[in-house]
Write a structure and sequence with these properties.
With 156 residues, the protein is of the alpha+beta class. The protein is built from 5 helices and 4 strands, in the order H-H-E-H-E-H-E-H-E.
Amino acid sequence: MNSKMIGALAAVALLAACANKNENASTGTGAATTAGPVPGSQEDLVANVGDRVFFDFDRSNLRSDAKATLDRQAGWLAKYPQVNVQVAGNCDDRGTEEYNLALGQRRANASRDYLVARGVAAPRLTTISYGKDRPTALGDNEQAWAQNRNTITSVR
């Protein structure tokens, strides 16, 4: 009889512990809940600053909207000096592979150079060109092409 009573008490105690754990999770007081992206993470960069800038057709010069995004990125990088990033240059699918790789590199360099001019230490930045190999939008129309002419900044 004692073992049945002990077993019943153990089951009640286990259920009570589970109820408290679920209550903490639903009220937001438990340790497992988070309040947004981790500061200094890729998710934080995307959510609070923006990770990409866009370019005009066959151009690598920075537009005013690109400069505004890069200014926010420079401020974010100043806030998180331990974070290193990679700037990847991309193109739409028109043109040869070789031409697009070179254009993507010019775009990545333009974004990197702008960040350096805004005070980000050059050793924190790397660049790469994917040319037309990593489209972010599918389609053969101006809307898709405009989305694919970009640089994307990624936390490393």
